[in-house]
Give the backbone structure.
Amino acid sequence: MGRVSDARERLLEAANTLTWKLGYNAVTVDAICDHAGVKKGSFYHYFESKAALSKAAIEDWWQTKSRPVLDKAFSVTNPPLERLKLYYAALHEIQVQRQKAGEQVLGCLGFSVAMGRDSVDPEVWQTTQHVLQRKRRYFESAIRDAADAGLIGVTDVEAAVQAVYSLFEGAMARARIQNSPEPLVGLYEQTLRLLGVAQPVASESRVA
Amino acid sequence: MGRVSDARERLLEAANTLTWKLGYNAVTVDAICDHAGVKKGSFYHYFESKAALSKAAIEDWWQTKSRPVLDKAFSVTNPPLERLKLYYAALHEIQVQRQKAGEQVLGCLGFSVAMGRDSVDPEVWQTTQHVLQRKRRYFESAIRDAADAGLIGVTDVEAAVQAVYSLFEGAMARARIQNSPEPLVGLYEQTLRLLGVAQPVASESRVA
DNA sequence: CCATAAGTTGACCAAACGGTCAACTAATTG
DNA sequence: CAATTAGTTGACCGTTTGGTCAACTTATGG
């Protein structure tokens, strides 16, 4: 009964687009409404508050944007290390496409919002934490699989997971800061180094 | 002539303390004034705008907080790789001390502000970019020195610098997000892996 | 000792903020 | 074809925002 509308979806999309670009605090309810072509009255018909919208938007982002890319790259049908390679390639491609289209390189939405911490609504922040955790598990499982298969030369697997994930998020964050996909180039090769995998062109190593 | 005052310094300090914690956008002029014990009228006696204060504060932060730590750790009297180790140890110690004091782990001020990009005043953002660049040069020079001394097993030094820096900033950012110094643990050992330096306990490596 | 420059104050402003609401419109379905 | 229900609208509210200002206070140096 009653009429139907996609205003809710448009609000979610607008919230993510703007938050990705500007961060949580800099995005106003008015701006989201303008971008979605929805009047403020309608906004509060769909969401209790700006924080409630943001929570739903981030969860939606994860389900519709992040997860599909992760699921595809980290499919267990791919060899463990190949999963990382595919994921890096996919993200690099996304950023390159954005740049070609004259848009900005924005890195990882969840990470950017999570960086806000105290200036972000606690529930929204918790949502980003949850999303980030789920993403990290893809890395963990791939690296554990690689370790089980004897593909990597690492004794402390947990430490390696942490390092690979830090390297990845650091590179993504720097890509945002520099507005360029450049920090993502060579990420896979560097990850192999962290994992103690010999490079295509082997290099000697000495004790410091 | 006229009277003297340290209000300017108090404003710089307050701006950095609050911005470090809350980010650029979430910090208000009123909050800075309250924290500094300065009335708003006085604020605009010293600074043209919030952006002007932030610019000056970040530059002050670099000169008084960041640089001294960097200069001490990256002193050329230390062996190249030891410089990185000392710097990581110093930062880790700072965060541990903060935690012990019941305060929050906040990572790198400049990086957090730079992540804001579009929501930050352009001149303020440029200032953080400049500071971040200067910090990165410390890494670069240490790693180049290590390469020249034949201490590392890496062919593409520039790529190694990028990776080490990404790993470092990623770990710092994650420490902020998790409110814990934990991601900084073992950073040096992981950096050695990136630089192709054999670990204390050597491990085999195979081709993937 | 007093002129003057430097510093301080609180009241004030327009704009922007998140949020509310009662009235209105239009599809759906019994 | 109602009656119901979901969706829409724009005016409105209190608060907070960055910023202004004229009047006031106080150390200093000539």
